[in-house]
Amino acid sequence: MSARSTAATLVRKATSFAGTVMAVRTDAPEFVLTYDDGPVAGSTDRILAVLAERGATATFFMLLSRVRADPGLLAEVVAAGHEVALHGVDHRDLTTFPLDEVRRRMHDGRRELEDAAGRPVPWFRPPYGHQTFGVWRAIRAAGMTPVLWGPSTGDSRGDFDQEQRVTAALTGAMRGAILLAHDNFADALDGVDDGTPPLLDRADLLVRVLDGYAGLGLHARSLTAALATGAPVFEGRFTR
Question: Domains of the chain, with CATH numbers?
Answer without folding.
Answer: 22-235 (3.20.20.370)
